[in-house]
Amino acid sequence: MIRPIVKDQMFLSKPSSKADKNDMSIAQDLKDTLQANRQICVGMAANMIGAAKCIIAVALYTDVLIMFNPVIVSRKGAYTIKEGCLSLPGQREVTRYKTVTVRYQDSTFTQKTMVFSGMIAQIIQHECDHLKGILI
Ligand SMILES: [Zn+2]
Hints:
Layout: H1 9-12, H2 24-36, E1 43-45, E2 55-60, E3 63-85, E4 88-105, E5 111-117, H3 119-131
Antiparallel strand pairs: 1-2, 2-3, 3-4, 4-5
The structure holds zinc ion.
């Protein structure tokens, strides 16, 4: 189900709580909503559709990668870049890392540790900030 995008900064500034198997429908809605906004958006955190759970969706070519409870466990190669956010007007400068190692559960709730770099790493960092209530 495609849900409206939350722009309430008070709500978006609260940290999200741990996701579990009961949150599968939130993940599906997040995937649907990201796909619907695909032309203007490359990633989304669950609180952006009103569910404050630790779930993110990352656009990966024509598919969407869903991560439950992602935690960035290491970072390498800092740089600064301007980013936009569907929940906020304009663009802001942020520090990101070229390569990140992320521990998360996949859509079958299997624990994974993966290394990402480039654009995908940047999206993951932005969305993981959302889970902590951090806006760019
Ligand atoms: Zn954002």
